[in-house]
Amino acid sequence: MVDKTIQQDKPILKVRNLRTSFKTGRGTVTAVDGVSFDLYPGETLGVVGESGCGKTVTNKSIIRLLPSHVTMYGDDSVVDYRGTNLLGLQEHQMRAIRGNEIGMIFQEPMTALNPVFTVGWQIEEALQYHTNLNAAQRRTRAVEMLRLVEMPNPEKRIYEYPHQLSGGMRQRVVIAIALCCEPDVLIADEPTTALDVTIQAQILRLMDGLKEKTGTAIILITHDLGVVAQACDRVIVMYAGQIVEMAPVRQLFHNPQHPYTKALLDSMPKPGRVGHQQRLPAIEGTVPSLFDLPDGCRFADRCKHRRDNCEASLPDLVSIGEGTAESKIRCFYPLGDVKESGAAS
Amino acid sequence: MNVIRRWMATREARKLWRNKSALLAIVVIGMYLLTALFVMAGGISRDTCDTVVGSNKLPGFFQQDTPEKRYENATTKFLTKIKRALAADDVGGALKEVNLGPYLAADQTPAQLQEIVDQVETLAAELNESPNLDNDPSMLPKLAELESVETQLKAPLSPWDQFIFNTSICLGTDSQGRSIFFRGIYSIKIAIQIGLVTALFSVALGAFLGAAAGYFGGWVDHVVVWIYTTFSSIPNLVLLVVLAYAFTNSAAKDTLLPVYIAFGATFWIGTCRVIRGETLKLKEMEYVHAAQTAGFGPLHILLRYIIPNTAHLMLINFSLLLIAAIKSEVILSYLGFGVKNQPSWGIMIRDAGNNGDVVGGFFWEIGFATVLMFGLVLAFNILSDALQDAFDPKHV
Q: How far apart are CA A312 and CA A310, in angstroms?
């Protein structure tokens, strides 16, 4: 199903060579370094990686939410949304895009709603800002949106304040607000991290259903590979500000090419291991400081498959495979088809 | 109505309701507000406060007429009748028929009466040179002399008839003969007017500037912080005195405008600081980030997301500022820089002190002004304390 959309449609969002730097007291630091990817309508693109690898900065760069006085974008960086380079827009032009064309939902549903207004008011507010609906139409639409996110009793719920709702319900409201203007792209920054597992599953299923209904493309930022497996069509794995691997989800899980991806998958707890006294494998070492990046592969000093020339120069992001199995990888020595032996064990 | 009923069910409202002293304070404040409205609606005019009703300072309900009235009484009706009787053919018979209200002609010879009439007319002519007898206390001894001379013309039927009933002297009069009761009540309006205008203005300005400074940061923050640091580095009273002096030659010097400006310029600082700090906290909340991603403009976020969430601080600051403004107005008026040519508790207290009334045992002017101010300030203090308790989530 993923592959069909990729082949059928043109990408709605094209990110090319995105380079985001911050001016800090210790000098300039490049948090996102040459990220390029396409987002197609109706797909869910997962972005995974450990803390500080640039997932959130990438997405905040797309929606231009980083503090403007300390943020610099690369000269050749392009975020092409329907033919418009978002990086070149004025702030007021950008405001017309945010919420209306590109929505975003946050990690913490407990604080993501304004505590002094009812949830209905908050949905209507977004509609008032971005559409020409009148008050009665906005009210109807707010109820519709709450029904769409499977909120029980939406006619009554619109009069309730955020503190009267549970975490899962609040996240539903947040999603309703993000989707009420029918954005083409929805950026979800760890939308399920603060929820317990049952609610997580409900919310992910809900987002999947909404994607089918509205055709919204979703960028799902997470560090939970379980979420990725359940919700995503394609996955980007980031490390130290760069994409290290980009592949369809099935391929990524069954046949990881980059040693980092492999290490991430290995450090997931697996049911079969429970009985053994085996320790959960962790990746040795730490992420290199962005102030002091190595010249060569950024993962080299933690990599089990390191060879001599890995530390000499930075590998490029190259395509491997073809057609539906096409993926991109930034490694001199991809693991190849190791899954036959590796996945079975 | 629905909104009120829903608010009454909130935890804050219930906590406030349980606090009986707060309820009493609300009742007291309500009475003050009603009185202020009554005065504003014209219940007590400025003229009533400035009218000289006699310089008897003792509290009571009976008084003599005003000097003007007394002068008129002494020089017109009765004197005219006596003069006409003296000019008649049958002087004795005519004098017996003279009567006016409770008075008859005195039992004296026509020659004696004529002499008294001449004296009265001399004194009346002298008094007539005073352009405004009511506001010229120096003429009062002469008026009293005129009255005592004139009294010899008439024989009163009852000693009570020279007094008239008057509520305006129920708390006595001040050294200039003006009603203490009406001046004290009128001052409620002045105090509440100054308190409300100052507090509303300061809270609105402080909240907006504080929220803008905290939210935008950068040069907006620098400018706002610079302004309020500069203002707060000047001692408060000195600034108020300077502003009061600056207005001495302007057309607005007798209005409350200088007081509003002086208070407005300084009172917003505390609120601004508090709201700025709260905004620094609020702008990192996720719902503010969410509002940004929803594409709302900065003004919209400020008015809908930041400022409503500082409402509790604004409410508490409002009641504190109201008290501060009322107290400052009294102090300033006492020093002579505040309210001019209008009744004010500060002016009443100053008058009572300056004229030696207090030392002489006439305590009711300073007493009434102090009691009124005490009641209002205490009620607001109790209320703001109760509000703080009610809106403090950690306080059960």
A: 6
For A89-115, write each residue's pLDDT tens digit.
Answer: 888 888 888 888 898 888 787 888 888
Question: Helix, strand, or coil here: B105?
Answer: strand
Indicate the number of domains in chain B: 2
Q: Is residue B172 part of a domain?
A: no
Size of interface A-B (CB pairs under 8 A): 67
* CATH code (residue B253): 1.10.3720.10
Print the domain residue range for B11: 2-50+177-391
The ipTM (two decimal places) reads 0.77
Q: Which of A257, A147, A149 is nearest to A202 (CA)?
A: A149
Can you tell me which residue has the tokens 């000047």? B234
What SS3 state is found at B382?
helix
Same domain for B258 and B377? yes
Token digits for B197? Answer: 């205008």
CA distance B242 to B264: 14
Contact residues, chain A to chain B, C-beta under 8 Å? 63, 65, 69, 92, 94-100, 103-108, 111-117, 125-126, 129-130, 174, 177-178, 187
B131 in contact with A, Cβ within 8 Å? no
Do A104 and B290 lie within an 8 Å CB cutoff? yes
Whole-model pTM: value is 0.71
Q: For A244-264, how does the pLDDT look when each residue is reduced to its tens digit (9 = 90+)?
A: 999 999 888 888 888 898 888
Same domain, B228 and B195: yes
Whether B300 and A106 lie within 8 Å, measured CB to CB:
no
Tell me the average pLDDT across A308-322.
81
**A272 is written with which tokens?**
């079969």
Domain stops at, among B128, B162, B196: B162
